[in-house]
Design goal:
This protein is an alpha/beta fold. It has three domains: 2-88, Translation factors (Elongation Factor Tu (Ef-tu), domain 3, Beta Barrel), CATH 2.40.30; 92-195, Nucleotide-binding domain of ferredoxin-NADP reductase (FNR) module (Rossmann fold, 3-Layer(aba) Sandwich), CATH 3.40.50; 199-238, Dihydroorotate dehydrogenase, electron transfer subunit (Dihydroorotate dehydrogenase B (pyrk subunit), domain 3, Ribbon). It has four helices and 16 strands. The longest helix is centred in the middle third of the chain and has 12 residues, at 109-120. The structure holds flavin-adenine dinucleotide and FE2/S2 (inorganic) cluster. Residues 34, 44, 46-49, 62-64, 66-70, 106, 109, 200-203, 229 line the site of flavin-adenine dinucleotide (FAD).
């Protein structure tokens, strides 16, 4: 973990609620790791997944506006600075030859960096990106650079009708990597075989000190911020 002062390169809307925040000055991070952003006026930092992290220090975050903290982040402008804890969490294991990436809503965000890492290793994943409807889609073109992509929407307004897990049925893979709502991750764990899930939990410190983010696994208690956020799906007690 490092504490770094990042500067805003750009902040642009991707749809009605999701925006892309590009920051300069970050240490390189792995797919599945996250950062904790300090938002002026709020005591607790906001945990956000690494959507991309480049060797030149550019960090890309994909953020959904849900409350006051993310609303303040949405208002950032080029040149503004942001205090961040970087390099948090464990990250995904890239031990698949035929990976299936399964994202639901804002849970697609960390899978973008994972897709790039697989592509750099010479492996083209299949990504199933699930959204509520066509208006809520984002980053599909970006994923298509590195993956075969299937889009699923709950109402059938784009891609196949259904959620990311039902749309994954029949897609050949030797390992899945999922991020999204808990109900989606539980369904993925129950139907897609061997895989890893990236979990969310309300966080206090974000770096292992407060135990506020503990979950139960088959190996005992684990902290989402420290032993996770990525867990073997079979080890999570759902
Ligand atoms: C490991 C991890 C990675 C995440 N990655 C992303 C991402 O890439 N993009 C994205 O848009 N969101 C992500 N989230 C969720 C994001 O942290 C919350 O949406 C955000 O903190 C909400 O802040 P707020 O002030 O707008 O909302 P409020 O509801 O006003 O927040 C109040 C408090 O609750 C906490 N909180 C609210 N929702 C969540 C949540 N879902 N998870 C954890 N804490 C929450 C906030 O941090 C804050 O302390 C991630 C969460 C975790 C744990
Ligand atoms: S948030 Fe403090 S231990 Fe995880």
């Amino acid at each position: 973990m490092k504490r770094e002062l990042l500067s805003v390169i750009s902040c642009r809307p991707l749809n009605g609620t999701v925006f892309e925040l590009k920051l300069a000055g970050a240490s390189a991070m792995r797919a599945g790791q996250f950062v904790e952003l300090s938002v002026p006026g709020f005591f607790l930092r906001r945990p956000i997944s690494v959507a991309d992290s480049e060797a030149d220090g550019t960090l890309t975050l994909l953020i959904k506006t849900v409350g006051e903290g993310t609303k303040k982040l949405r208002a950032l402008a080029p040149g503004d600075t942001l205090d961040a804890l970087t390099g948090l969490g464990n990250g995904f294991d890239l031990d698949a030859s035929s990976p299936l990436l399964v994202g639901g809503g804002i849970g697609c965000a960390p899978l973008y960096k994972l897709a790039k890492e697989f592509a750099a290793a010479g492996v083209r994943p299949h990504a199933v990106l699930g959204f509520r409807n066509a208006e809520e889609m984002y980053y599909v073109k970006e994923f298509e650079r590195y993956c075969d992509v299937t889009v699923a929407t709950d109402d059938g307004s784009a891609g196949v009708k259904g959620n990311a897990v039902t749309a994954s049925a029949g897609i050949p893979h030797d390992r899945f990597y999922a991020c999204g709502p808990q109900v989606m991750l539980r369904a993925a764990a129950g139907s897609l075989g061997r895989g890893q899930v990236s979990l969310e939990a309300r966080m206090g410190c974000g770096f292992g000190a407060c135990m506020g983010c503990s979950i139960v696994t088959t190996k005992g208690y684990a902290r989402v911020c420290k032993e996770g956020p990525v867990f073997e799906a079979a080890e999570v007690v759902w």
